[in-house]
Amino acid sequence: LRSPQKTFPIQQKSATVTGAMTPGMPIFSPMMPYGTGLTPQPQQQQQQQQQQQQTPQLYHSQTVTTTTALPGNTPMYTTPLTPMTPITPATPASESSGIVPQLQNIVSTVNLGCKLDLKTIALRARNAEYNPKRFAAVIMRIREPRTTALIFSSGKMVCTGAKSEEQSRLAARKYARVVQKLGFPAKFLDFKIQNMVGSCDVKFPIRLEGLVLTHQQFSSYEPELFPGLIYRMIKPRIVLLIFVSGKVVLTGAKVRAEIYEAFENIYPILKGFRKTT
Amino acid sequence: MIECSRGSVGDALPKVQCPNHPDALLVEDYRAGDMICPECGLVVGDRVIDVGSEWRTFSNEKATKDPSRVGDAQNPLLNGGDLTTMISKGTGAASFDEFGNSKYQNRRTMSSSDRAMLNAFKEISTMADRINLPRNIIDRTNNLFKQVYEQKSLKGRSNDAIASACLYIACRQEGVPRTFKEICAVSRISKKEIGRCFKLILKALETSVDLITTGDFMSRFCSNLGLPKQVQMAATYIARKAVELDLVPGRSPISVAAAAIYMASQASAEKKTQKEIGDIAGVADVTIRQSYRLIYPRAADLFPPDFKFDTPVDKLPQL
């Protein structure tokens, strides 16, 4: 399960040394910008294979979200998967799916704290469109991170299109900077992620008719209306779109962990409805 | 004359039962106005008021004088059983006051609370009449609408949209589903809105409906196209086989049914074009083409064994 890319090569060298970190191991390696807080764990639990099966999953998600495209980007805060989220022990009966949903879209809101004149923003800013007859906000786009923002005259802003929480916050800050440079006293109040969308592939076709029969209080499958099955999970409160091909879209999450938890919940159910032909 | 009372009249009516035989269906003797238990002969209800209409009126009779003095038959199931009095316009000279206006000008609103519901029932009846739906589906639709209306959870939605969605659900529940497009054709509401109301109603009433299958639509589509029974049976078999062999994963059952009808009709003497089938089924002809391409490779396996081919399998059109 542990591919070489996932594990940190430095650790493998010191795999024989149990206990404390060797002095020769660089802690602040560019390869693990987030993992420093958690590096002691896999070393201590090298004997317990089961625990290790859990941790690569978390590491993988962290390394995936590293914004390697922006080498100069230092995180303002660590991702939510730092020590405050406990690592659940693997139950012997079930094994983790080994598939991690990828985040596709993050929607966040922030309050710039001052009234804005949309006309001046639209006229002076680059990549801004404003059509008050159609919609009462300025639609601004930036290329890096590729996002779109809706800026309202009350000073509130919606930022969509980012692929990670960090990128969303960074993009919102960039938009706030643009507005600030135009002369408004913009602040950065109450940044909140409102919605996160993730997708993944279970790599096998699924019998949606079977799934809707057994889970009919959660599922809605109407081929006339939509080709996918809409599964509304109660805990965590996530909506999953499940398709015949095996692709799954998860949405409605406020934190990343909810998406992962929802997928871990649905995966054994989907395995039960695998198409056998 | 003895008239048997219908056992499943509805939950709104108070049930009279024989104290000794609660399960026995009471027999109504309306000559004397009694309800009699058939098991022991006990007269359970006495002087029962007949709530049917007073006179039977037929459309071909001269309708100048309607002898009915009690109005329409009471519909207790759906109306909340109101007992209001209405004063109709008078006929003699005494009904006019000094200026020539009629006294008792307007009929007082009979049931403002149920006015919207009655309107909806009328709308449901009109819609159902357009596609010739039987009385049982209309009754079921009315019942569903009443339940939804009383729940008030969908109060903001247009009543016509809710009525259309109830009609769709009733058809599904009776085992003769109509496609959303067919309901759209008789309603002024868009398919999107009907779909939304459909999901909301299922949630509000906490019911579910069975999944649609290709066979549900075969008889209707084929008879609309004028295809003989043999072709219809062949198309049903083809569609079922195609779904069993999983040749068309993720395709709507309507599209698969349309493609099966196309294949069956092209193999028989009654050939129908994709456009004609698309018109009847409400699918685009490119959709039929796509589904047909998926089932064409296994065409030989899909036909029923006793099918008489007018055009052999290898000569079927390849699109």
Automatic annotation (TrEMBL), chain A:
* UniProt keyword annotation of Magnesium present: no
Quote the subcellular location field of this record. Answer: Nucleus
**Main subcellular location:** nucleus
Q: One MF term in GO for this entry?
A: DNA binding
Which InterPro entries has this protein been placed in? TBP, TBP_CS, TBP_dom_sf, TBP_eukaryotic
- From which domain of life does this come? Eukaryota
PROSITE patterns tied to this protein? TFIID (PS00351)
Compositionally biased intervals (Low complexity): 39-57
Q: Might you name a Gene Ontology BP term for this protein?
A: DNA-templated transcription initiation
Q: Where is the segment annotated Disordered? A: 28-61
Which keywords accompany this UniProt record? Answer: DNA-binding, Nucleus, Transcription
* One Pfam match: TBP
Q: Name one GO cellular component term.
A: nucleus
Q: Which family does it belong to?
A: Belongs to the TBP family.
What name does this protein carry? TATA box binding protein
UniProtKB/TrEMBL annotation, chain B:
| Reactions listed under catalytic activity | L-lysyl-[protein] + acetyl-CoA = N(6)-acetyl-L-lysyl-[protein] + CoA + H(+)
Q: Can you cite an annotated GO cellular component?
A: nucleus
Q: Where is the TFIIB-type domain?
A: 14-45
Q: InterPro entries, from UniProt?
A: Cyclin-like_dom, Cyclin-like_sf, TFIIB, TFIIB_CS, TFIIB_cyclin, Znf_TFIIB
Q: Which branch of life, at top level?
A: Eukaryota
Q: Which UniProt keywords apply?
A: Acyltransferase, Chromosome, DNA-binding, Metal-binding, Nucleus, Repeat, Transcription, Transcription regulation, Transferase, Zinc, Zinc-finger
Compartment list: Chromosome; Nucleus
Which CDD domains did the record assign? CYCLIN_TFIIB_rpt1, CYCLIN_TFIIB_rpt2
Write down the Gene3D superfamilies for this protein, in alphabetical order: 2.20.25.10, Cyclin-like
> Hey, which family's this protein in?
Belongs to the TFIIB family.
Recorded protein name is Transcription initiation factor IIB
